[in-house]
């Protein structure tokens, strides 16, 4: 699965990407998270990105592309990924297209998370992220409960509000989205990649629609370590029939190998031919019945 989640700030890209990752195994690659991590670690890239982020502007393409290129090169992303918040403008979309073409890994779909702009501000001001497990919550619509335990198994999260989730910066982020990111909708529609999901309603309902929209795309292939682990458990998870996974010797013993199957088919055909012959013989008139026929008058 190689998909992009496209949508306005607060449309639910991060919330749904986390769920999709848990279900499908493909990693969530969020340009916002990568940038916030760089800022928190005080890297040179983070220091250069911080001012734009605080103002709700886009960080320069050069910095974001460097982060994305490095992240998509990691082993867990080689067989699929969910891009969240990237690309954000036409230049980034074209750079992504070139990057994926050189890796021979084109996008499967771009999903637009479609939300009425009127609800976005309330969603964003109510958002809280857990600093320990990274889950996204909302103090109005989805506060933590027993069904969303933190890393220690309890529902006690370390909730933080993002510095750019204030009224003023939110206003600017929405304007930047309309001017620079929204043109990507037509860009991907023209390329036949766009799928639109109604991203309003319960989070579970939205997820069901998202699943249906991306259902036809390939599931992420587990990376080698995971494949080896599941092979050790006795299942390769390749989707092949059970008999095809058995060893040739075992198949021969159980009569499910190709030779045994051919022999079975031959003997079935022989039995059928024999039955046909005996039916034909039974239909033929016997000597006695011929003799007992009344003679035609001469
Ligand atoms: P980024 O972190 O990408 O922020 P964003 O695009 O503004 O998106 P958000 O994370 O705010 O929203 P979301 O759609 O993920 O919503 P969420 O699921 O959290 O970017 C931050 C900054 O980094 C940018 O401003 C820019 O400066 C920079 N940047 C990032 N990428 C860049 C790039 N490619 N190029 C240049 N600069 C870049 O949900 C929001 C809230 O709503 C949550 O509280 C959630 O619980 C709630 N919610 C979700 N679904 C529902 C629902 N169905 N019903 C009710 N509430 C819901």
Gyration radius from CA atoms, angstroms: 31 Å
H-E order = EHEHHHEHEHEEEHHEHHHHHH
Biggest sheet: strands, sense, closure?
5 strands, parallel
- Ligand set: BIS(adenosine)-5'-pentaphosphate
Tell me the total number of β-strands. Answer: 8
Uncertain runs:
220-254, 285-295
What fraction strand?
A: 5-15%
Secondary-structure content class = alpha/beta
> What average pLDDT do the residues reach?
83
Number of helices: 14
Give the overall form.
Answer: elongated
Kindly summarize this structure in a few lines.
The chain is of the alpha/beta class and 298 residues long. The protein is 53% helix and 11% strand.
Task: Produce the secondary structure layout.
Layout: E1 2-6, H1 13-24, E2 28-30, H2 31-41, H3 44-55, H4 61-72, E3 81-84, H5 90-103, E4 109-114, H6 117-126, E5 127-130, E6 136-138, E7 159-160, H7 167-181, H8 183-190, E8 194-198, H9 203-214, H10 224-232, H11 242-245, H12 248-254, H13 258-283, H14 287-292
Parallel strand pairs: 1-3, 1-4, 2-3, 4-8
Antiparallel strand pairs: 5-6, 5-7
The chain binds BIS(adenosine)-5'-pentaphosphate (AP5).
């Amino acid at each position: 699965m190689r998909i992009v989640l496209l949508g306005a700030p607060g449309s639910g890209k991060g919330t749904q990407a986390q769920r999709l990752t848990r279900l499908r195994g493909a990693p969530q690659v969020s340009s916002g998270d990568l940038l916030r991590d760089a800022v928190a670690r005080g890297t040179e890239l983070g220091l250069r990105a911080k001012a734009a982020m605080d103002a709700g502007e886009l960080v320069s393409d050069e910095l974001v592309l460097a982060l994305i290129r490095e992240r998509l090169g990691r082993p867990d992303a080689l067989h699929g990924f969910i891009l969240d918040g990237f690309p954000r403008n036409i230049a980034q979309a074209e750079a992504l297209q070139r990057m994926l073409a050189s890796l021979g890994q084109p996008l499967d779909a771009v999903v637009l998370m479609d939300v009425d702009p009127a609800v976005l501000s309330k969603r964003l001001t109510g958002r809280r992220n857990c600093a320990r497990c990274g889950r996204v919550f909302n103090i109005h619509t989805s506060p933590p409960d027993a069904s969303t335990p933190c890393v220690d198994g309890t529902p006690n999260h370390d909730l933080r509000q993002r510095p750019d989730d204030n009224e003023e910066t939110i206003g600017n982020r929405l304007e930047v989205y309309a001017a620079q990111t929204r043109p990507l909708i037509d860009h991907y529609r023209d390329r036949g990649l766009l799928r639109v999901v109604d991203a309003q309603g319960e989070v579970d309902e939205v997820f069901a629609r998202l699943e249906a929209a991306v259902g036809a795309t390939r599931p992420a292939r587990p990376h080698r370590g995971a494949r080896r682990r599941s092979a050790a458990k006795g299942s390769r998870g390749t989707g092949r029939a059970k008999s095809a996974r058995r060893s040739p010797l075992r198949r021969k013993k159980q009569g499910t190998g190709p030779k045994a199957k051919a022999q079975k088919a031959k003997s079935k055909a022989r039995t059928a031919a024999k039955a046909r012959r005996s039916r034909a013989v039974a239909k033929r008139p016997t000597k006695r019945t011929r003799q007992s026929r009344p003679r035609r008058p001469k």
